[in-house]
Amino acid sequence: MLLLIGYVIVFASILGGFMIAGGNPILLLHVSEFIVIGGVGVGLLVIASPASVVKQIIKDIKDAFMGGGVSKEDYMDLLKLLYEIFMIGRRNGLIALDDHVSNPQESSLFNKYPSILKDKKRVTFLCNALRPIIDGKIKPDQLQDLLTAELDTREEEEHHSVDILALVGDSLPGIGIVAAVLGIINTMASIADGPEAVGEKVAAALTGTFLGVLGAYGIVNPLAKKIDFMHKSQFNYFTTMTKAISGFAKGLAPIMAVEIARRGLEEENKPEADELEKILKGLNSTPAQG
Q1: Residue 284's pLDDT is what?
Q2: Are residues 235 and 152 in the same domain?
Q3: pTM for the whole thing?
Q4: How far apart are CA 200 and CA 167, in angstroms?
Q5: Residue 113: CB partners within 8 Å, gap ≥ 6?
Q6: How many distinct structural domains can be found in the chain?
Q7: Are residues 101 and 234 in the same domain?
Q8: Domain range spanning residue 30?
Q9: For 171, phi and psi rounded to 5 degrees?
Q10: Would you state the torsion angle of the CA atoms of residues 165, 54, 36, 25, taken in this order, to the nearest 10 degrees?
Q11: Is 264 found in the same domain as 122?
Q12: Residue 290 counted as domain residue
């Protein structure tokens, strides 16, 4: 929603200032310039990106408009789920977690937290992080490095869409100049048509430059930055999982493992220690049946 509000402010400011100065917004509607700039911009995106990144860009743009990111409620659900998982592992042995991790969609424990269960990436990362310590295939002090390596790869992959959008944004002023040059070529070919026709074509050419600069600094680059913030928020979510699970694997009590994760949260998403402890102690930590 904030992204949409921002765009409304940008366009209202531009059109409002233009109209106050006596301009007619209709004069900015030159379809040929939109086609050149929009088409070349999309073409650059397709040329520079593999199919998987194109799909990721579409998803990221949709998520950005939908307010994608991780909320305080998402973190609370994560901390509560981690605490329940750790309590089951502490009381009944890690093997008691096997059914939940092997089939989270059917797990009564995971089903208590739909914000996690509905996100395939979150569920997959959590289950993959727990699996080595359940199977006993890795030493506790080695788990941190394993999860960090996976996080680094995930961060690099998710940053591809931001890089491509930044490339398109940085290219738009140049594309605007290309559109303007095409317009000038058109203008020179119509000099014999008189001053009115020449003026109209020059206006169209200048509109190309205007749209290129506006597209870069008013639309695409801010969108890329928004998606970058969104990715960092999601990355911090997985980092929170890593800290808690690594702490538990090293022998920390469930409440302390969760507390370590809590302290790594940003202030806007961080619950108070007393508040979280009260909520966790009130949870029903009886082992759930998968």
Answers
A1: 52
A2: yes
A3: 0.83
A4: 32
A5: 77, 78, 80, 81
A6: 2
A7: yes
A8: 2-67+160-215
A9: -85, -20
A10: -60
A11: yes
A12: no
Do 150 and 169 lie in one domain? The reply is no
Alpha helices in 66-194 (DSSP H): 72-92, 98-102, 114-117, 120-135, 140-158, 160-188
- Whether 133 and 195 map to the same domain: the answer is no
φ and ψ at 277, to 5 degrees? -60, -40
Q: What percent of the chain has pLDDT over 90?
A: 42
Same domain, 54 and 152: no
**Position 233: which residue type?**
S
Decide if 62 contacts 262 (C-beta within 8 A).
Answer: no
- Residue 175 within any structural domain of the chain: yes
Cα dihedral value 235, 240, 245, 251, nearest 10: 150
| Within-domain flag for 289 | no
pLDDT for 133: 86
What residues of the chain score a pLDDT lower than 70?
284-290
Residue type, 65: F
What pLDDT sits at residue 115?
A: 87
pLDDT tens profile 180-220:
998 888 888 777 777 777 887 888 888 889 999 999 999 99
pLDDT for position 286: 46
* Gap between the Cα atoms of 280 and 284, Å rounded: 9
Buried b (16+ CB within 10 A) or exposed e, 275-287: ebbeebeeeebeb
Is residue 62 included in any domain, yes or no? yes
Same domain, residue pair 176 and 237: no
What is the rounded distance in angstroms from the CA atom of residue 211 to the CA atom of residue 204?
10
Amino acid occupying residue 252: L
pLDDT score at 195 = 77
Instruction: Extract the tokens encoding 178.
Output: 């290309």
Instruction: Check residue 166 and give its pLDDT.
Output: 94
Residues 6+ apart with CB under 8 A from 229: 69
Best CA proximity match to 204, nearest among 18, 21, 26: 26
> 132, 225, 210: which is closest to 176 by C-alpha?
210
